[in-house]
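Reminder: ligand-aware prediction takes two inputs, not one.
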Amino acid sequence: MTANECNIMNPEVQKQVSKYVKMYSRKGAVAYVHSFGCQLNVSDGEKIKGILASLEFDFTDDYKNADLILLNTCAVRESAEDTVYGTLGNIKKYKKENPGVILILCGCMAQEPKTIEKIKKHYPFVDILFGTSALSQLPKLLLEHYEGKKLAFDTKEYKEEFGASYQIRESSFKASVPIMFGCNNFCTYCIVPYVRGRERSRNAEVIIQEVKELVKNGYKEIMLLGQNVNSYGNDLPDGMSFSELLRELNKIEGDFWIRFMSSHPKDAGKDLLDAILECDKVGKHLHLPVQCGSNSVLKRMNRNYTAEKYKEIVNYLRERSEGFALSSDIMVGFPNETEEEFEDTLKLVEEVKFDNIFTFIYSKRSGTKAAEMEDITTDAEKRIRMDRLLKLQRNVATENYKRFIGTVVRVLVEGESKQGEGWLFGKSSAYTIVEFKGDKSFIGTFVDVKITDARNWAVSGELV
Ligand code: SAH
Ligand code: SF4
Ligand code: F3S
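Here is what comes back for the chain with iron/sulfur cluster:
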């Protein structure tokens, strides 16, 4: 147990908070917890739920039933922040009618200094605010709130890791395991290093033990999380590298898949690529955000690789494993992106043949270097470029997914598909969405599916 976990379970704070919770909640105390943003944030949200459960809260999916509403926010793009402010606006009325309800804002937005000012000025009905590394301080903040503090907040950086033992996981067969927190890369457009702090790797033994435990409890997919998992261990004195960690986890007995995200091309060395290719439990897929195909833009983004270096990585994998599955993040409209620079991105997308890309229009984040850069490209032009990129990718993916037709793939079944009555969906080792007809009892298990059809975002087939 780490120091922070002890802090959480400080029996005195615990007792006092639980007493207040009982006193002020209308029925049994019920909390609504919503996480925006990436999987790391979702994982934090699951830990926050664990803390609330230890304070005797139950959970609801509808904030209108809740005694406590917690929004775990994302700051990566302006649209993400707008969604949060919109949600706060919706909650305002409910909060006015139910003044005893506790409203909490946490996560990446809460870590930005400008947010606290904005909350004080425009959203004074927020009761508690805490930053990305202050999860463990929630009981203390609740106590301050119950004792009458107007806005209880804590945005200090806590170095101690907050234990996974509290996590209440949504899924009984898919689990995410953060292996590191923070980011040192300072891509010029990105807010993450400012709101998540510097890289901190978790101890390898602790991670391995956690994965063993999950596998023993029947989890079939372990997703290792970090902003740049390839630099795992760099901050530990005698730390394992990420590829060594993958090989250690691959030794754990059991029927399960290991996945990870995200990787940075500048650190995707042969040791990592070989580990992916050689470890039988590691999914045969790499999510490798390229951002764009232009070397001049990559330089302005401070990405520290070139389009040629990126293609070398792709070739290395595909020479050893034909049709190796890749996905990526691509940004359109970085400040002053020219038509030629954008066309370099189209060329790269055409050449690499990603199965899937996540696309974003550049969004200015105050405090980052790119926010100071001149930008004469209009929003309308950026949207047109985005449409061109999406159209190209649809064609690429339609062709690409045909390579699976006629093959039998192993699928971890995730749920019912919207395709129609009796249809299920899951993902293959290559992280392809696979749809097929089958009984709901297959959900959470591995099945074999023979692929008969391909579309631009998924394949479908029949159970073998
Ligand atoms: N650490 C991960 C990505 C985290 S953010 C990595 O480096 O791959 C996820 C994606 O959001 C990024 O890959 C990028 O494409 C996008 N993104 C980040 N900042 C952005 C911004 N200011 N505007 C638009 N998209 C952004
Ligand atoms: Fe942001 Fe770059 Fe770090 Fe990813 S690697 S989180 S894009 S700064
Ligand atoms: Fe968003 Fe924070 Fe993740 S900014 S993308 S929730 S690390």
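Residues 1-6 have pLDDT under 50 and may be disordered. The longest strand covers residues 408-416. We will return to this case in the review session.
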